[in-house]
Amino acid sequence: MYYETIFIVNPDISQENTEALTDSLISKVEKVGGRIVKRENWGSRPLAYSIANRKRGNYILLVTDGSPEAIKTLEHAISLEERIIRSLTTRLSELSDKPSPLLRRAQAAAKREEEAAEAKAAAEAAAAEAGEEGEAAVADSKAGDDASGAEAGA
């Protein structure tokens, strides 16, 4: 059986502590024979409504393969953890290798930002190159003006 668990960690907790918390939950699941198939950190996101006077939370997704006992262990560990403000576990009918839609969106946004940065750098390089050519043309025309002025004076 596959189970998907999403939990929200208090946003005041650092990223390192969030990862350590997730690792400890995973080790508890693995001790009872469960296996984590997928682990995604969705980062800090706004909450749909305020929870414990918080408007944001760090979202973590775990997909577990194992017996219902492993899920009970995970849910029990989550319920005892004060840093987790909400959680939801659902049973999956099939397992997908693809990243979650939220993670795919985040990856696409990061790729677009990277492409925009590359395009900007290329445009700046082209502008700098064009500026150098323009300066050379101005210098050539000044040299030509000086030479024609010298000829006119002679």
Description:
54% of the residues lie in helices and 30% in strands. By secondary structure, the chain is of the alpha+beta class. It has 2 domains: 2-97, Ribosomal protein S6/Translation elongation factor EF1B (Alpha-Beta Plaits); 102-154.
Properties at a glance:
154 residues; alpha+beta; Alpha-Beta Plaits; 4-stranded antiparallel beta sheet
Summarize the topology.
Layout: E1 2-9, H1 15-31, E2 35-51, E3 54-65, H2 68-80, E4 84-92, H3 101-153
Antiparallel strand pairs: 1-3, 1-4, 2-3
Helix pairs in contact: 1-2
Summarize the structure.
The chain has 154 residues and is of the alpha+beta class. Helix content is 54%, strand content 30%. The chain has two domains: 96 residues, Alpha-Beta Plaits, CATH 3.30.70; 53 residues.
Beta content comes to 25-35%
- Write out the strand line-up for the largest beta sheet, numbering strands in chain order: 2-3-1-4
Topology pattern, helix = H, strand = E: EHEEHEH
N→C terminal distance: 98 Å
**Unreliable residue stretches:** none
Q: Quick one: overall form? A: elongated
What integer is the average pLDDT? 83
Q: Biggest β-sheet, characterized? A: 4 strands, antiparallel
SS element count, helices: 3
**Total domains:** 2
Helix content: 40-55%
Q: What Rg, in angstroms, do the CA atoms define?
A: 29 Å
CATH architecture verdict of the largest domain: 2-Layer Sandwich
The CATH H-level homologous superfamily of the largest domain = Ribosomal protein S6/Translation elongation factor EF1B
CATH hierarchy, class of the largest domain: Alpha Beta
CATH fold description of the largest domain: Alpha-Beta Plaits
- Structural class, judged by helices and strands? alpha+beta
The number of distinct β-strands equals 4
